[in-house]
C-alpha cells in the first residue's frame, strides 16, 4: 500500500516500514510537522493497519482533529478518498495509489467559519473543564483497532456504566473515575487518574524514568532484551507533581542506526492514555502497554541501538519524557549463524542496513578448505522479502575460479523458524557444495 500525506508544504510516505506518523507543531518529536499556532505540539497520528487501511486519531489536541466536520473522539477513524480532514486549522492531504496508475485523495479545502467556531468552543471547553459544546460530536470508530496498536478501552465499553463520556476534568468525569475505582474496574477502563496498583519491582525489574517539575514518567519492563516477531509488554506510571492539563501519554519502539535518521525510526507506538484531563498534585496513573516488534529487525550492536521512548504531552507546559534502552535480537539471523557454526563456518561480520530487512557480511570456511581452495572469506547477503528470506553467497574469483561464483536460495520464514538446527545446517551444506563445485 502506497499512501502519501501532505501537511502544509511537507510530505511523508506511509508504508510497512513507516507505518505510523505523528503530526504536530514540534519538528523534533513529529515525523510530519507544521509551524501553525492552531496545531498542537503532538496533535494527531496517522497509521496503517496490517491490511493496508489508513487510520487517524487525535492526541488530545487543543483545536481537535476533524473528519467531514466532526471532531475525532478517543477511537481511531479510517480515512477514505473524498473526505475533508483538518488537523487544527490546517487541511491534511492523503493520497492513495490505485491499480492502473491512478490516484485517489482527500479534498484540500479552506476551513469553513462554522468549523473554526466549533474549534474555538472546544478549546474553551478544555481550558475550563465545562460540558461539551453544542454540535460537538466525537466520531465513533469505524473499524477495530489494528493489531499491534494498543488502545485502552474507555469506560462506556463496560456494562453498568452510562453510554456517554463526561467532559474530561469535569465533576462528572471525576465521579465516574471514582465509581470505577471503587467497583474494581482495571486501569484499562479509567478515563483520568486512578486504577489498579502498579507492579512491584520484583515483577518488573528493569526500570527507567524521566521527570521535570510537572511530574515523573516511569517505564517498567520484565527484561531489557527482545527479539523480532515478538510482543513487548510493559508498564508506565505517571506521577503528577503539579496541576496540569495532560493531552496524551504514549510510548514508542524506536530504532537508532548510525546510517539512519538522527531522531530514530519509530516501529510501533502505543497511545496508553488520551486526554485531555486535569491532574492534581500527587495523582498517580499506572498504565500497561504493549508494542509489536517487527519481523526483520536490526540487531543491537555498534551501529544500531534500540530504546523505548515515552512522553507525557502536557498542554501549555513542559512535556515529560523517559527513555529505556533495550537490546534487540533477531532469531532468524541467529539460527543461520548457528547453522553455519555447526558446519565449522564462522560468521566474521554481519551488518544490518537501517530499518533492518537486509544484512551483509562475510563468513570464513574451515581452515582445511581455506588452504585447499585458497579462499579466506565468502561474501554473505540476507534479505527479507515478505514471508521469505533470500540468502546470497558469493566467492570472489581467485586462481581456481576464473570469475566470481554466486549461489542464492530462498527460505520460507515459517519453515526456517520451525526447522531444527541440524536440518538448517544440512541445507546450508548442500548450497555451499553447489557454490564450491
TrEMBL record:
<dbReference type="InterPro" id="IPR000253">
    <property type="entry name" value="FHA_dom"/>
</dbReference>
<feature type="region of interest" description="Disordered">
    <location>
        <begin position="147"/>
        <end position="177"/>
    </location>
</feature>
<dbReference type="InterPro" id="IPR008984">
    <property type="entry name" value="SMAD_FHA_dom_sf"/>
</dbReference>
<dbReference type="InterPro" id="IPR050923">
    <property type="entry name" value="Cell_Proc_Reg/RNA_Proc"/>
</dbReference>
<dbReference type="Pfam" id="PF00498">
    <property type="entry name" value="FHA"/>
</dbReference>
<protein>
    <submittedName>
        <fullName>FHA domain protein</fullName>
    </submittedName>
</protein>
<feature type="compositionally biased region" description="Low complexity">
    <location>
        <begin position="162"/>
        <end position="177"/>
    </location>
</feature>
<feature type="domain" description="FHA">
    <location>
        <begin position="21"/>
        <end position="72"/>
    </location>
</feature>
